Amino acid sequence: xxxxxxxxxxxxxxxxxxxxxxxxxxxxxxxxxxxxxxxxxxxxxxxxxxxxxxxxxxxxxxxxxxxxxxxxxxxxxxxxxxxxxxxxxxxxxxxxxxxxxxxxxxxxxxxxxxxxxxxxxxxxxxxxxxxxxxxxxxxxxxxxxxxxxxxxxxxxxxxxxxxxxxxxxxxxxxxxxxxxxxxxxxxxxxxxxxxxxxxxxxxxxxxxxxxxxxxxxx
Length: 218
Prior knowledge:
three-stranded antiparallel sheet; 5 helices; 48% helix; 19% strand
């Protein structure tokens, strides 16, 4: 079963939690330090507490997020397994899942929203697929040089939003003769897409062999 830390370490999650609210944590530091210094009579204790308390709050916030993501991953997996009569091949992560029933020529797609709500499965008949391809929009970020903390934080936030937007578009794009769902995007990197473009080709050509048990690819 996948977990939130399979592809990104806890340390990286802690850093992202700090980066997205860097200005806030700086103000928390500035508030705690003089108060702790005054109460303890020690500058060293004041600085230590001003660093330790935000670090504790960041860790608690990140750990809570990790637990929520792990719960969502488990829910996505269970919904993926029940989305088709037979699940031969599948792939999933915190953004959603894709699965294939080779015998019946069906593809299931599940999308998870940023709010952590999981949408009902979209089922597409392989014969209705008109186009499929991997698309990567590329990366655009802004570098900041200077002393303005607020502007630096704004630049970091804009870069994170840019990365999130790229993640939404990067992946396996599938177009189908389906009025309700003419296009779906399964977020994945090119190494995963190399496998899934082949799987889609084979299920469309009716050459994909069923498996004895659900197999995650790759």
